[in-house]
Structures are given as C-alpha cells and as structure tokens.
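Minutes, project huddle
Topic: does the predicted pose make sense with fe (ii) ion bound?
PN asked that the exact inputs be recorded in the minutes so nobody has to dig through chat later. Recorded below.
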Amino acid sequence: MKPSNHAQSPALQRPDHASAAASAGTPFDLGEGRAYENWRSEKLNFFSLSPEALAKTLMVPVADPASPRPDEKGAIFERCDAFNMAIYATSPDTEKQDVLALARHLGLQRFDTPLCTGEDGLTEITVADGGREEFYIPYTDKPLSWHTDGYYNKPDEQVRGFLLHCRRPAREGGLSELLDPDVVYIRLRDENPDFIRVLMEDDVLTIPANMENGVVVRDAATGPVFSVIAGKLHMRYTDRKRHIEWKDDATVLAARQKLTAVLNDAEECIVRFRLEPGQGVVCNNVLHRRTGFSNDPDAGSNSGENSGGGRLLYRARFLDRVGAHQ
Ligand SMILES: [Fe+2]
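Predicted holo structure (tokens), as shared on screen:
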C-alpha cells in the first residue's frame, strides 16, 4: 500500500492559495510596503554570508536519524525558518527506514507520490537500466536544470517540502545547487512588482499532460509560479523549455527573462555542495539543480541500496513544510 496522500482529503480540494487574497496581511501583498521591507531585510541579512560560511551554517550533524535529539531537530528547524533549507550529516550507512524516520521526526508526514515512487514513499534517484525511469532525466547521468519539485502537480497538491539523502555519490560530478525562492521573489519584486503580479496569476504556467504510449499518466496542470499558502511563499517553477506553456503576455515574458537572469547570476545566494554518503538536504522545496555526473564504468546495476552500483540518492516529497507536524 502506498503511504497516505493527504491531497485526497476533501478539505484540500479547495485551493486557498491561488489568488491574491491569500497574500492579504503577509509581506507578499503587493500593497504592503512596510511588511515587505521588514521581511526583505531580514531575509537578505540571513543570506549576507559568504558561500562558504553559508554552506557551513546550513550543516547540522545528526547522530541518530531514527531518533534525532531535540537540539538537532531545533537546529534543522532554525535553518529552515531562515533559509528554507538545511543540510544534515549522519552515518554513511543510514538506510531507507532511518531516512523516513528522520523525515517523520521533522514534521514531514503527508507524502506526495509521483511516478516511480516506491511503496514506502521513497524514490531511488539513480541511473536507470530499464523500466519507465530511463525515459526521465532524473534517472540518467545528465544535468538537471533549475526547478522546484512537483511543478506538474495540481494547485491543491503542491510539494511544500522534500528530503534528498545521499547513499552513494557519483565517481565524479553530481553537484547540487540550491536557491531559496524567497530570494528570487525579492529580486523580481525589487525590479518590477508587476513581475510578481503576473507570476501569481492562476493561468500563468501550464504543464501539459504526461503521456506514456498514448495513455495519460498525469493530467495537465495550470497554476501560478508564486503563491501564498498559509502565509508562506510557495514557488512552482521549471527552467525546461519543452513541454511547457507560458501565458502569452509581454510582462510574463519580461518576468521570465529576469528570473532566468537571477538563476544564472554567479553572485546570487546559491548554495553549492556535493552530498557525501550519509548527508542530505531537507527543505521547503527550494529551487535546485544538479550537474551531470559519471559513475565507475564497472558500477554495474545501480538500483538497490546494498548493490555496489553508482550514484544513489533517496528522495521523499511531501505536501508539508519542514516542521509542519510537530
Ligand atoms: Fe528535484
């Protein structure tokens, strides 16, 4: 049986975030200059660290992922509050059930279960040697461009958090880069508040249905790039150019161009690191990408945590933010 997916709850069938009304009283209300300025300066202050200091600050050692201590959990929550992400470091031989236990302890409970997800809610991100996975870029050794997870989900099934755990690194490459969507929001709003206005429109970005052998395996999804859910900013984005439909509008085009410029700005507050065995990212679905990589030529079959194969990461996606169920 698949883990429970709370999106089936009737209470979640009513999207409460896809309109400007959800922004009222938050810093994300375009009419709220002062609240925005306060939030903005606090956020940019957090990110004023050098890239090295930032990566170091985000790192939290966790002695036992199956039973993290209150101070370890507190350190992760603190970082997720400030940066929307934390990196943890635990034993290299941490197994699936411990990764799932850590997620549960961190308040991540309502699973999103896209294609290729295992029965336990974890997905093995590794180079596929057959099956439907080999048709999807995450299961190859190719680079993955900027995106937030689940950008093809419906508005009421948004991925609010995910955990990515390294079981085995690649021989070479496979670097991760992460960027807090709050920072992107700030760059766009500072440039032109109309960029935010159009990117919050409910029909700005459509991901067409996913077809496999003529059969729809995922419906089309239309929704905003930025939305506000329970007072927090949420971003839905993919940098891909194919199988994606943007609203045909001059301001949307200009906003997209600015967004692309931010994502490619070498001076931006981008967190860069290469996950080592036992390390993982836990976050409020921040923007991320990975570089291409190469495994040992004799790595053989990649699947299975005890095989001697190539790069293997475990990923779990949630409809919750970190710390949601405490
Ligand atoms: Fe991803």
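Observations noted during the meeting:
- Residues 147, 149, 288 surround fe (ii) ion (CB under 6 Å).
- The longest helix spans residues 33-46.
No decisions taken; revisit at the next huddle.
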